[in-house]
Amino acid sequence: MKPPWSTNQLKRLGDALRDDAVVPSNLPDYAEVIAWYDDLAARVHNGIVGLHLDGIPGVKSIEISSRAKTIDTLREKLRREFPIRLPSIQDIAGVRINADMSLLTQRDIASSIAGHYGHTREAIRDLRTQHHSGYRAVHVWLRLAGGRVEVQVRTTLQSEWANAYEALADLIGREIRYNQEPNLSGLRPSLAKTFDGFHKELQTFSFGFIRTQELVRVSDSILDSVPDFFERPGAESLREEFVSTTGDLLQGALDIANAQETPPAVHATLLELRSRPRSVEWARAAQDPIRGATQAWLRGLRYDLDKLRAESKMEK
Amino acid sequence: MSAFVLEYHRVSGDYRVTEFVGDEAHRAAIQRRLELEREHALGDGWEIVSLNAESLEVIKRTHSRYFFGKELVGA
Questions:
Q1: What ipTM score was computed for the predicted complex, to two decimals?
Q2: Minimal-distance CA residue of chain A relative to B49
Q3: Residue B58 within a domain
Q4: What is the pTM of this model?
Q5: Is residue B73 assigned to a domain?
Q6: Which candidate, A127, A137, A135, A133, places its Cα nearest to that of A181?
């Protein structure tokens, strides 16, 4: 269904929002437009629920939510990406999908959604390989009769990382999401240094530890459908890499488990795995506990952020 | 599908959740979001968002950033 206003009217409404100007009476009302986009997001959300993505092999714990962009972030985008106009903003209507899945399944889900809405692969934005301030996800850019919708498809780890990074951005400046340095002026040097270290550590964590873990999981997921994959000619080096990289990840998981509170069962499993002989079976068994420790670390960040938040408030 | 209006303070981390249920939940929620936006002064640090999902638990995972701080209960 097409919206009851023209593209040109929407452009002019966006200009007024960007400039904090009074919206002329011949333009659509901001509230009507946002309600329209919220409805559009809810319709796509329901359409995606109807695809039963949880039936795709390798998808666990799928979770879907939708929203219309907030006024603050809409205005911020119109200003930051000037001369962008409102109808060209992809994510006024947004749907977010989280699932425990491999990188291959993540790509398949994005393709299914694009295909369902009659879009080609051109609609898929793979943000997993290049550095977007550490952000990794696959987005699907839908262009529907009712307007544009952005569908964000994220693995559980990518989602938890993105939420931790956004929470940090709320404290030290949302510009860090766009490859800019945080605004740490006004903080005592030691606190500014802590925030800065936190920021850099999170970025490195995304493109180092999490990405490596997810790449290794691809091999693990291939073994689900092709159990003798590593026995095939030429696969020896891949097998060795799978096992040795898992060994590195296990050590990394133990390091973070030692540094921060991790569920005791996960910690005990990691220790037990370290003492076992290494093999493909061993590496496969290690994937879930490594991921569990990583999730615990990301969730534990909220306490660190709360402490930093309290310290920075005391200074202001 | 349910809908939730979240009032979230970016600096303090405090948040308040209001749930809407029923077939028209997301429409009622977006209207409440728009009302709250009008009540808040621009740049006062409060972010008002309306989110649609099967349950609050889903929102707490897809948008966990909003739940790092302290929940405010009541009006």
A1: 0.96
A2: A70
A3: yes
A4: 0.95
A5: no
A6: A133
